Amino acid sequence: MPRVLMSRLSIRWALLALVLLLAPTARAEMIFDGVFSQGGVVFGRTAPGTRLVLDGIPVRVDGDGIFVFGFHRDAPASSVLEITPPGGTVERRSLEIAARDYAVQRIDGLPATMVTPPKEVLDRIRRDAAEVRAARATDRPVADFRSGFIWPVTGIITGVYGSQRILNGEPRQPHYGIDIAAATGTPVVAPADGEVTLAATDHYFTGGTLILDHGHGLSSTFIHLDTVSVEVGDAVRQGAAIGTVGASGRATGPHLDWRINWFDRRLDPAYVVPPMPSH
User: Where exactly are the structural domains of the chain?
Assistant: First the structure.
């Protein structure tokens, strides 16, 4: 599985700055570095002032021409990127998106109320979901993701992105993150620079839930935390402690469920980090 190594990407951004200075302005010059597949994350650079729209969603381009976007687990075979360079006319590029095969994961032994929640908690679940949607809708103009990404915790990977979940024998939503087994209380660190947009301690399904916004609509979500050590509005640097591993919410044991979104599109965190270190 290919992965984006951000140290390499930083070098390419620097080189691209020179390329763009020499490029003609009538047609957009662009560099992509990422994975054009379902769940893929794509970083890129273009001439500052270029306007980008992906499948009708505006893509923020900063003053250095840096941008990011991604594709959902079930993205169709192609996406349309509209590009309007400074002083130029709109160009439409069709982006081919590779399909993926996903595993089926069966999890048994969950409390029945965590698979089919009782009616009296439905309002709570809706409030939780609304908080998460609002946090992920953030579109800060700061490209904190330029710091690169590291694993927020190291351990054995017990769940992967995209797998179809069968809970207590009942088909449920696919899994949209990476599960990393670790002991309760193990520190969780920020995988990249960012700003905290959600710091909840008791969501029904996800328990301790933290969202760290990396800018331009790219965010990380950390689920089942035992403790949350930051607050909404905190600016954190890569490697800073943000909480601890737990088994809160719907979980059968202590682990971290790490997810990445571009707005409401759920992406595969494995595409932004190197392979998990061996233990």
Answer: 6-96, 104-271
Q: Which CATH architecture has domain 104-271?
A: Distorted Sandwich (2.70)
> Which of the pair, 17 or 275, is modelled with greater confidence?
275
Please say whether the beta carbons of 188 and 241 come within 8 A: yes
The mean pLDDT value for 35-61 works out to: 96
Residue 109 has pLDDT above 80, yes or no: no
Is the pLDDT at 36 greater than 80? The verdict is: yes
Cα–Cα distance for residue pair 249/194, rounded to 1 Å: 25
Pairing of strands 51-54, 78-84: antiparallel
Dist CA 82 CA 101 (whole Å): 29
Candidates 58, 48, 3; CA nearest to 25 is 48
On the question of pLDDT at 63 being above 80, the answer is yes
Q: What is the pLDDT of residue 32?
A: 95
For the purposes of burial, counting CB atoms within 10 Å of the CB of 260, is it exposed (0-12), middle (13-18) or buried (19 or more)?
A: buried
Pairwise CA distance, residues 133 & 74, whole Å? 19
pLDDT in tens, 1-35: 334 444 555 555 555 554 444 444 445 688 999 99
Token pair of 217 as six digits: 């609509």
Fill in the DSSP letter of residue 133: H
- Each residue of 202-222: pLDDT tens digit? 999 999 999 999 999 999 999
Dihedral (Cα; 94, 102, 110, 173), 10-degree rounding: 30
42 DSSP β-pair partners: 34, 69
Fold category of 6-96 in CATH: Immunoglobulin-like (2.60.40)
Which positions ≥6 away from 227 have C-beta within 8 Å?
A: 185, 208, 243, 244, 246
Rounded CA-CA distance 63/65 in Å is 5
